[in-house]
Amino acid sequence: MPTVYITAPPDAADEIAETLVAERLAACVNRLSTTSTYRWEGDVHRDEEVILLAKTTDDAYDDVVARVTEIHPYDVPCLERFDERDVLESFAEWRAESVE
């Protein structure tokens, strides 16, 4: 089962997280504050962002990517898939039941 790593500006993070859970695309989304340093259009930028870790399923992964791309304010949002090697079975069952 995948976890989707997403970065977003603080003012958009809540909407993204709540949309994914409300639409049952993710069972849970964790939010962590961070500072990102990156190159954009030839310049180096430093911005406050939020890391979102969306717990989803293989079947819902493509829908998560499509929905985040649709509502994310960035032209090029960061979405990365991490597949678990090991996960507590009870958590995996809860996640599967929570995502449609």
TrEMBL record:
The keyword Cytoplasm is annotated on this UniProt entry: yes
Keyword Repeat: no
InterPro entries per record: Ion_tolerance_CutA, N-reg_PII-like_a/b, N-reg_PII/ATP_PRibTrfase_C
Pfam families: CutA1
Keywords, sorted A to Z: Cytoplasm
Swiss-Prot/TrEMBL GO biological process terms: response to metal ion
GO molecular function: copper ion binding
Similarity section: Belongs to the CutA family.
UniProt cross-references to PANTHER family, sorted A to Z: DIVALENT CATION TOLERANCE CUTA-RELATED (PTHR23419), FI09726P (PTHR23419:SF8)
Name of the molecule in the record: Divalent-cation tolerance protein CutA
Native source organism of the sequence: Natrinema halophilum
